Amino acid sequence: MEFFERFAIPHPSPAIYASMVAIAVVSIAIVVGLTYFKKWGYLWREWLTTVDHKRLGIMYIIAAILMLFRGGADAIMMRAQLSAPENKLLDAQHYNEIFTTHGVVMILFMAMPFIIGFMNFVVPLQIGARDVAFPRLNALSFWLFFAGAMLFNISFVVGGSPDAGWTSYFPLADNEFSTSVGTNYYMIAIQIAGLGTLATGINFLTTILKMRAPGMTLMKMPMFTWSALITNVIIVFAFPVLTVALAMGTLDRLFGTHFFASTNGGMDMLWANLFWVWGHPEVYILILPAFGIYSEVISTFARRNLYGYKSMVASMVIISLLSFVVWVHHFFTMGQGAFVNSIFSITTMAIAVPTGVKIFNWLLTLYKGKIVMTTPMLYSMLFIPLFTLGGVTGVMLGMSAADYQYHNTMFLVAHFHMVIIPGVVFAMLAALYYYWPKMFGFMLNDRLGKIGAWIIAIGTLVAFMPMFISGLDGQARRMYTYSEASGFGIWNMISMVGALMLAAGFALIVYNIYYSFRHAPRDIGSDPWDARTLEWATHTPIPEYNFATMPKIDTYETFWDSKKKGTTLFPDKIEKIHMPNNSGIPFIMGIIFFLWGFSFVFAMWIPLIICTLGIFACMAYQSFENDHGRYISIEEIEETEKELGGKR
Amino acid sequence: MKLKRALLLAVVAIAAVLAGCEPLTVLNPKGPQAEVQANDIMMSIWLMSGIVIVVFAMLAYMLIKYRSSKQAKDYEPPHIEGNKWVEAVCVGIPVLIVAYLSFVSVQSNYKVEATPPGYEDKEPLVVYASSSNWKWHFSYPEENIETVNYLYIPTDRALEFKLYSFGPITSFWIPQLGGQKYAMADMVTTLHLAADHPGEFMGRNANFSGKGFAENTFDVTAMSPVEFEEWVDEVHQTADPITEEKFEELLEPGHLGKMTFTGTHLDFSPAPEGHEHHQSNDEDSEENHENHDEHEGHSDHSGH
Question: Looking at this predicted complex, what is its ipTM?
């Protein structure tokens, strides 16, 4: 019995017990359902062992949507607790755990897989490739992310959630002040998912640099691919810092080192610096692919080429460079003095220039266009004003002297939600609507989609604009309660209304998926939006080899030109195609990594050693396995092509 | 139509900030540093509102003018690569705005990191403000007084807070007197403040520090120099001296009411300043002076 005591929740509540029951019921239902419908084989063959970038992309996106609801439930609980002064819905400990998991889940397990999911699905199609450079590594990336996400998510029912904030500042996150295993979960779950992300970065960098279709020079790449390229460069440079920081944090917590302790020569400031040396570039890892999505969507529905292609690329390169030299603005108040603050204040505000260029380029893309207001376009058009509000408040925060007053307040919370929600979440929703027909062969209902977009946009304003005010009125972030006399009540009540609107908006999206699945027509062709880039030159559904023959690229809108000017996109004859085989190794490694992480969290050394050996065994097997992939014969390709509507 | 409604909502929200029935705490400064910051904030709000209006107007214009429903069926949008001059304007204007803001920002940085103007004639009042879970300890070395969770300050002198922590990183913040600064366990940071007028202000730890964070507040009372002197005398007559045992007790995690002591804990538990100065042998006059204080405190302690 003693052995199992460590898994108990240190600070339980009825809601947590209810969640345990719910998790158990859902798990049993899934197992029973799969068995009853005899879908285990299908699941294993088509999804768990797949190395196809399209299927991995879809799995990333499904995971991201699940995590969106997990993080959203956290958000609703927080807003409910704060909606009235001295509210007793949650106590301090629960509130602390909830805002910590909300932050981690939304950034690392919602936004990240969302963008990586779309990168997976779209990038190889946009560059005319048959898969990514290392398909099996790609599958491993997904399963590592998924193992990390699941490990993090069970924390609240097994052993307790982390409670030191998503920034997990030391010494608060050290054993002395965070006594539960929660912060171990933070250190190890993010580590596992982070390794997956790092592998993704290397994989996509190689893919984009080496696997573009003939004729596609760098300056003829679609803008989303450009944004993915730059994002992956940032990933490759930024994520190792996180890896190291988390490893040092793990050593501090589990092996008694003092890297970040305030005694024995440790330095708590070191964690803050390392965290944000990764953390600020991370913001751009999220926002740049979102910018790429907007560029595609706006250009498609303005029926015009993207204005200022070169300056779009240049601005992203400049943003990526600046993203590494602004991290100190997350702690202007650490006492580094006027000179250092001045430098980082200037670099921070300088980011507004390339970002502004992008905003103006999108506006100028609309100029002389023929704007069709579909749901993805509506999200993009709502993004511009809302993101501008978030962006200009970012410039205000960049003024370091004034930041002494904004720092750690709701003003800051309002700012980053006003950039991340319109910037990243709207982009992901736009992309979801935009690429849905390519993924699933039917379109999501446009009317429901637009209603949802309006509810989400207005909900965002209602939820977060009041926080600017309460922040300037002195409401610090992360306070689980406040007094009536403070006068924060009214603003938090308005925020609660906005949060409920957001919840309703997301629920409507789910309903839309259900509704469209039932009612939407399936004969939509392969290019339902009349789009401009290469991914729309594929059939729907996309055959596993993507393109029967390699496209030939002349401009950054070759597909559009082939439609308008009748140029030939696919000049070559069909030849046999080399494809990678499925593999169970990445999935198995994901499971072992999950167990490895779980053992690590609870400092169970023998299972940890066994799992470590298991991981190395998988790697050895992988290294010595003789798998050269397989060929798809010309006949098979011709048959598939005929079935899907002939060679385009 | 809907877009307009959304825009209207945003404008109303901004107007509420700007107009505000009663002034928001941060925009209602009672000291020179907070005033510098409030001025920066208001200036940037106006400037940014201008940018927001330009972007909103451009977007509205494009959306109204170039909707497909307003155009001929066979209209084919032209291919436009970009224009050097247009892009120069798109870069140039933001550069000018950022340059101006940087200019203001750098100046303000040096203002808030120094004794405020008009207070140079008198030596600043040094107060050591240290946090422990979840309390604030204020030590007045000059007056030889220590308080818990409340702060009395005179209005005629600049204030120099020496911040450090007995636990997690905290942030010392009195919004109406000026912005915050971190208090950390392994170094001392300095925050320069001053109060213009007598009054009562809210002070708090702004940086999340665990379970008791929300209630980690303190009261600040600014008073005339005469009243301040009277208070100091009164404390010396009525309060008990702080002892090492008593202080250890105070450091226990939890919440405490207001407390007053004579003497300061700095005598037996000096602030973590000067660690780095030891090695670097910094000869900067002010820093050096503090070093001496610290050394004396230290030798006292070892003599016990």
Answer: 0.92
